């Protein structure tokens, strides 16, 4: 399980625990953890595409 997937699962668990206990702060922290996971996943995808483009430019010389 990747780091972003673990953050997403941790965030979902926090959100559900916060919802079950009525703890708005924990619920919000869970949503933030999930958003960070999504951002990390998107950044990794962009990084991979940039590296691929760089590599194809090197091979073209």
Quick rundown:
With 61 residues, the chain is mostly helical. It contains two helices and no strands.
Number of strands: 0
- Given the C-alpha coordinates, what overall shape results? rod-shaped
Q: Would you tell me the structural class of the helices and strands?
A: mainly alpha
| Biggest pleated-sheet summary | none
What is the number of helices? 2
Distance between the termini: 38 Å
Series of secondary-structure elements, N-terminal to C-terminal: HH
Give the percentage of residues in beta strands. Answer: under 5%
**What level of helicity do the residues show?**
over 70%
Count of domains: 1
Low-confidence stretches: none
**Quick check: average pLDDT?**
90
Radius of gyration: 17 Å
Protein name: CsbD family protein
Family: Belongs to the UPF0337 (CsbD) family.
InterPro entries: CsbD, YjbJ_sf
What does this molecule look like?
With 61 residues, the chain is mostly helical. It has one domain (3-59). It has helices at residues 3-21, 24-59. Helix 1 (3-21) packs antiparallel against helix 2 (24-59). The longest helix has 36 residues, at 24-59. The chain is rod-shaped.
